[in-house]
Amino acid sequence: MATHSQKDAYLFKKVISIGTVCELTGLSERQIRYYEKRKLIFPERSDRGNRKYSFSDVETLMDIANKMEDGMQTSELRKEMQKNQNKRYDSKFRERMIRGQLNAYFNKRD
């Protein structure tokens, strides 16, 4: 995952158990595991093999559940998520390229 500021780093720490995620989202363990199987969510595993989620994962699960309720298929969701990830990557890549060009320009002038 991309680098996050110190301020929001807690959002991405995978520390929440599946039971707590169920309580927070209203989803069943079976639904959450299904979304994982369909490669829509990617929990980490503890040493004992228990799934661990982040607050960001909880938000993603809520978004998935809402879109599924609206009739979206998991394959459509996966494509949408991949497209959004590619946009974020492209944006970061462009930003790095521009910074590199600016650095080269100003270093050349010195």
Automatic annotation (TrEMBL):
Pfam families: MerR_1
Gene3D superfamilies with a match to the protein in the record: 1.10.1660.10
SUPFAM superfamilies: Putative DNA-binding domain
Keyword Oxidoreductase: no
Keywords per UniProt: DNA-binding, Repressor, Transcription, Transcription regulation
Superkingdom assignment: Bacteria
Domain HTH merR-type span(s) in chain numbering: 15-83
Molecular function (Gene Ontology), one example: DNA-binding transcription factor activity
InterPro entries, per the entry: DNA-bd_dom_put_sf, MerR-type_HTH_dom, MerR_fam
Keyword Transcription included in the entry's annotation: yes
Cross-referenced SMART domains: HTH_MERR (SM00422)
Protein name: HTH-type transcriptional regulator TnrA
Species the sequence originates in: Sporolactobacillus putidus
Lineage of the species this protein comes from: Bacteria, Bacillati, Bacillota, Bacilli, Bacillales
